[in-house]
Amino acid sequence: MTSLRDDEGLTMYLIIGATLPAELRTTLLGLQAHFPDKSWVPESFLFLPFCALGNITDPTLLEEIDHALRNICPRTPLSFTTDGFELSLRKDRISLGIKVQPSQLDHLSVKIRSAMQRAGVQNPKLYTPLTIPLAAVTDVPSLNVSQWIQMHHPQTFSEHTISEITLFSSWKNEETPLIIPEEEYHFSGII
């Protein structure tokens, strides 16, 4: 496992998810380019989160997480379909995301959470419903968000596959969180 950093003044938060296929990432970056003004705050890194682990610093626990993720990967790629937009409220932040219709990915996220509990992670949290975060829209008038969604809705329906899960770290300070891929776990037989 990559040596995870612990810089002073920043909090490292671990998330398990999937790096997006290049075609989907390009499409979503194009959507972000069409935000009308600076009140729309684009996510700094586009990915599909499955499970938040929280702040992990214990080296033994990091090794258990690594071992569990190596053993949880499916044998074949998993497909999913993007299915429109989703607005969600967490704490005092309103986020715009792309909904994912993924029976296989739902099952994988539950397996990941169970494996993390067995590895010793306290209270791993599932991301439900599965959504690719696109932007924070807390300060955007709701009518503007609605109009933007109606204008861009047809662009979000497509089928994709993933062939690995990724352990991400999130470094938070006063600015937008920085998401960093730390380790990739390829599905069996896929390099």
UniProtKB/TrEMBL annotation:
Taxonomy, superkingdom: Bacteria
Name this protein carries in UniProt: 2'-5' RNA ligase
Species: Acetobacter cerevisiae
